[in-house]
Write a structure and sequence with these properties.
The protein has 234 residues and is an alpha/beta fold. It has two domains: 47 residues; 175 residues, Rossmann fold. The chain contains five helices and eight strands; from the N terminus they run H-H-H-E-E-E-E-H-E-E-E-E-H.
Length: 234
């Protein structure tokens, strides 16, 4: 029966120690035993490491909010530009974040769990598609694509994480939106949208789905506010 590499490595190490044991153990029994035990321990540790446990695989999650109701006549004419969505450095990263309700000022990152893209980029793309499908504006583009549009929407991510309680988790999403007149840069209104959606604690797919539902609710409220914009004050 063939000898495994681990067994061969240990056997080789012990054979190489024969000369030391023959002399060292006779002259210095205590020190020799310690050295012998140390070498055996190191060889066993190396053998265990060679077996190895596969490292956990990284997992990635997307968001794709459902299409909103279609507006028959656009409330905003002259074009709506969506600026690059802003966020602080942590929420601009792809790691999925969490907070515990008993330590609300402390943020952590889940190991091996990531968003497929940076949250601000995912949110901007999802918002672009929702506003286009809603028909709330006659034209909708991202910043830089149409510099002479009449309106500009600036969005900042305030929260985009899992809020962990004792037996459940909440998808905690908070966005600040400011609608500007592109003509002179004057803000027409500022709104903060906050949505918490129940999820299963520790289930990252359920969390991604809850985040998606939260964004759907926020986008719906945002569209209603855009519809109510008084174009005469622009």
């Amino acid at each position: 029966m063939p000898v495994s590499r681990k067994s061969a490595a240990i056997d080789t190490g012990l054979r190489r120690y024969d000369g030391v044991s023959a002399t060292g153990l006779r002259g210095h029994d205590g020190n020799g035993l310690i050295r012998f035990a140390t070498i055996v321990l190191v060889l066993l540790m190396l053998a265990a490491c060679s077996a190895g446990v596969p490292a956990p695989e990284d997992r990635f999650y997307e968001i794709s909010p459902a299409s909103p109701a279609v507006q028959q006549q656009p409330a905003l004419t002259g074009g709506l530009s969506i600026a690059h969505v802003e966020a602080d450095p942590l929420r601009n990263g792809r790691a999925i974040l969490y907070r515990h309700t008993d330590k609300p000022l402390q943020l952590g990152r889940y190991h091996y769990e990531f968003w497929a893209d940076q949250p601000p980029r995912m949110i901007q793309q999802a918002l672009l598609e929702s506003l286009r499908q809603s028909g709330v504006a006659d034209r909708v583009e991202t910043e830089g694509r149409r510099p002479h549009f009449r309106y500009e929407l600036v969005v900042r991510v305030l929260r985009f994480e899992s809020l962990v309680e004792s037996r459940r988790a909440l998808a905690d999403v908070e966005l600040e939106a400011v609608l500007h007149s592109a003509r002179d840069g004057r803000p027409l209104w500022t709104k903060v949208y906050h949505q918490q959606t129940a999820s299963r604690s520790g289930d990252m797919h359920a969390l991604a789905d809850a985040m998606q539902q939260g964004l759907e609710q926020i986008f719906g409220q945002l569209i209603e506010d855009l519809k109510a914009t008084d174009a005469g004050n622009e």
